[in-house]
Structure formats: structure tokens, C-alpha cells
Amino acid sequence: MKALPERDPTIDALAPESRSRLATIWAQRAESELAAGVAFAAVARELRELDADPVVLELADQAAADEPRHAELCLRLAAAYAGAPAATPPPRAVTLPEHAGAGDALRKHLHAAGMCCINESIACAFIEVCLDDAAGPLVRAIHREHLSDEIEHARVGWAHFASPRVDAATRREVARWLPRLLSANLENWRSRIAWLPADGIAGHALPPSARCFEAARAAVRDVIIPGFAHVGIDAAHAAAWFASLRPQ
């Protein structure tokens, strides 16, 4: 990781109320990143149990190691906005989705699809739209670092499903589950975005919440559904599901 700027004049110039709100948001983001590390460690274990390709396992292990560093970056921003050190949040228990009705092996494949292909690809789109709205050097540097890693985290899933170690029967089952996976992830992102300021805070990587959610929808339409088709998973039902959604 490159050295980060020591000061950010755009933070120094921000009104105290906005600084306090952003400090709270970034402290909460730190907690989410730590939880993501636990989830990625679980996905990495499951991929080993599936005898995934060694390249996939290396990417998954790196992703699990990256998330605590992301939490540190979030705490760095929380401290910059608060003007005081930010406490590391306590760890919280994380459970992966049960996917009732799926067998044990399929459930593990679905975790890779949901966590990596879908969630991390949406995260890339979210960070991109936030980076577009970031003006200060510290805020921009941290978002660039985070985005670079999230791209690699999404690759865990894409590389796994592109691998010949995923058989045709599994690909058919994952295709059948895609609408449910996409719906659950979009609803999760809707909830996460809902507590952000509706009008955003201009220049501080916090665009209006509607713009953030539209970026999530666009990622599903333009990246994720075509991505599954690209790695040999029939995405026709997923595309039909997305087309049936009402405009936001």
C-alpha cells in the first residue's frame, strides 16, 4: 500500500456536523470490512473443500487478508473526520447464507457466486461512483486502494466459475439460483445504501444515495449477468428477472 496523505484540506474545511456524520459512517464501514474478512475466510475454506483451482485459492486467501486492511483504511478516514483516533470495532459473528434446498457442495459454489461474483462486483461499482465524487487527496487515495482490491476479490468468483473444476451440472444449478442470489444481494445493497444521506455530501465520496443504488443496479445489468454468461453459466433467467424489475 502506498503512503497515504497526512492531511486532507477538504476534510478540514467541512462543517462539524458533516464531519461527525462521516466519522460515524466510516466507523461503521470498518465494522463491515472486518465482517467481510470473516466471510471471505469461510469462502476460502469452502473453496478448498471443493478442490478449487490453486489460483482461485490464492486469490481467496488474499481477499480474506485484505479486509482487515480495508477496516484500517476506514478507521483512518473515521479518525480524520472526527479529529481523534477511532476505536477498532469488536469482531462480530458472521454466517454465510443457508440457501435452503441446496446440497452441501452446491451451497459452497453459491457462496462463491454471491460473495465474490455478485457482491464484490457491486462493491466495485459503488466505490467507483464514490471515487468520482471524492475531491480530497486522502479520500481519493483510500478509495483507489479499496477499488483495486475489490476488483481482485470479484475475480475469486469469476476465476472459479471459469475453471474446468466446476462441472456442467453445477453450472446448471447455479444458473437456476441466479435470480435469487441477485435479488438478495440487491436488497442487501439497498439496505446498506438507505442509511447514507439521501442528498450525499458533495466532494467526500458520498454521492446521493439514489445514484449509489443505480450504480448497483447497473453493475447487475452490465457486468454481473453478462459475466456469468461469459464463464459458461446460462444467465437467461437472470436477465429476464432483471428486466421484470420496476425502474427505481
What does the model show?
The protein is mainly alpha-helical and 248 residues long. The protein has a single domain (12-243), classed as Up-down Bundle (Ferritin), CATH 1.20.1260. It is 72% helix and 0% strand. Helix 2 (16-49) packs antiparallel against helix 4 and helix 4 (104-132) packs antiparallel against helix 5. The chain is globular, with a radius of gyration of 18 Å. The model has no long low-confidence stretch (mean pLDDT 95).
Q: What's the number of helices?
A: 8
Radius of gyration: 18 Å
Q: Please report the first level of CATH classification, the CATH class.
A: Mainly Alpha
Q: What percentage of residues falls in helices of 4 or more residues?
A: over 70%
Low-pLDDT stretches are none
**From the helix content, strand content and strand pairing, which structural class follows?**
mainly alpha
CATH fold category name: Ferritin
Secondary-structure element sequence? HHHHHHHH
Report the end-to-end length measured between terminal Cα atoms: 37 Å
Number of strands: 0
Number of domains: 1
Instruction: Please outline the major beta sheet.
Output: none
Using the 3D structure, state the CATH architecture.
Up-down Bundle
Tell me the strand percentage band: under 5%
Overall geometry comes to: globular
Q: What's the rounded overall pLDDT mean?
A: 95
In short:
With 248 residues, the chain is mostly helical. Helices cover 72% and strands 0% of the residues.
Give me the secondary-structure topology:
Blueprint: H1 9-12, H2 16-49, H3 54-82, H4 104-132, H5 137-162, H6 168-194, H7 209-230, H8 236-243
Helix pairs in contact: 2-3, 2-4, 3-5, 4-5, 4-6, 4-7, 6-7, 6-8, 7-8
